[in-house]
Amino acid sequence: MRLIIYPDAGMNVFLIKWDYNNEDNLAIAKGLENQGHKIKYWVGTSPEDVSSPSRRNFTKTVFHNIFDAIAGRPAAEFKDISFPPPGEKTIKDFFETESILATIKQFEKLTPSVLEKKSVYHGFLEYWFGIINKLKPEAVIFSVQPHAGFDFVLYSIAKHLKIKTVIFEYTGVSDRHFVINDYSVGCDKLRKEIEDNRGKAIGIKDLSSDIREFYLRQADRARQAISKEVGNIKKSFSGFNLVLIKLRMLKRAIADFSFLKKSYFYFKKKLGKNFRKEYIEVQIQPDWNKKFIYLALHYQPEAATSPLGGVFVDQLLMIKNLAYALPDNWVIYVKEHPVQWLISGLNYTSFRYPGYYKSISEIKNVKIVPIDTSAEELIEKSEAVATITGSAGREALLRKKPVIIFGYPNYRYCPGAFKVNDVLSCQAAITKIKSGFILEERDILNYLYSLDRISIHTYFEISAKKLSKLTPAEHVEIMTGAIVRELEAKPFGAI
Fold first, then answer.
1. Which 8-state DSSP code applies to residue 384?
2. Over the stretch 319-368, which tens digit does the pLDDT of each residue have?
3. 430 with 485, same domain?
4. Is residue 262 part of a domain?
């Protein structure tokens, strides 16, 4: 028999990846408690001082340092408690979770040993099943899509046990977020809103000022297509900021007596093989007279491809599926993400290994174009844009260009976005595009109008906070209300 928890009883809640030294977050958590909900477990930055506000105000909450959680270390309250290890059935039930976890940024970097990582993963299953069975949460609330390793395992367990999950998904538009329950489904309310608004006469004047400004800026074809996020990263790795980074690296190398060793390996990479040289060796200038699909590679590792790309975290697999479905006279132009070279330098990585670019260039009808090729021109002159979840897809849609998506982007329900997962679905999408598919402005305005009505103003990401006009009090009120509405929307089961 399953126990049904009703809103007036209050819910046991986990907060995952919420900074608990942040005054706004403390106020949101207190607002949830005032509504009768109990914060049973909180993963975030560590309140080292036992007299910190989080410790004083939430005496019945278990606090867990996020860096301990990522490394598989338990919260202090549970360091001496053992939980049953997972058995064969559990391991098999979570094969997909293990597969995705292997490519998640924080987990991928943990240790070079395959079996050590497997042991850490089994520890995640053991610990979070144990915590859930002990504290019996009715809801787990994530500040963003789970992508730190431990949180993805917790999310998977919660979905498996039918425990409600609440996720704040950044839309990429000003400070707007969707409140979702499943990253692979996204904002179903948006999909329904788009259907309800189909056929309505929606004009630019009907959009809120922030969305109207966003649309007009994106539609300006004279503007170089580059997201604010990429722009901020480029700024961080150029000019004076680059000088500071180099000086810090030099200081560390001198301090740990590794200067000579690092200098030797740097010049060895510079003069010998490196992934920039490999890219340049196989690149060609695009032939603008050809019909082509523009495919922008994602920076990796990052949440945009793991978990949001699913099996297509392997971008080579994505390219092969798309290439196999191409008409004979079409090609794919592939361009590397500029941030990949900024962050990785000359180093090969697990995601850009020796031979990676060569393998791409050897696929039939696939061409690698120079990294400085205008993204704006590639979007404008293409027949379609292909991506996993990238901002190039959103920018293309706003220019009335169809997009083939392999992952789970927040714009997946926008008209003109074709979700694919294999050769057959790629062929179906390309056939429709080739037959004269036209994306009308009214379709884009419908999408933006629906986004306007369904999304909420709030912020977690630094980029969204900089764009937000909310006062802290408004942010707290909106967040608390959004969570309470989500928790109390309907009864759901507990363990």
1. E
2. 999 999 999 999 999 999 988 887 767 677 888 899 999 999 999 999 99
3. no
4. no
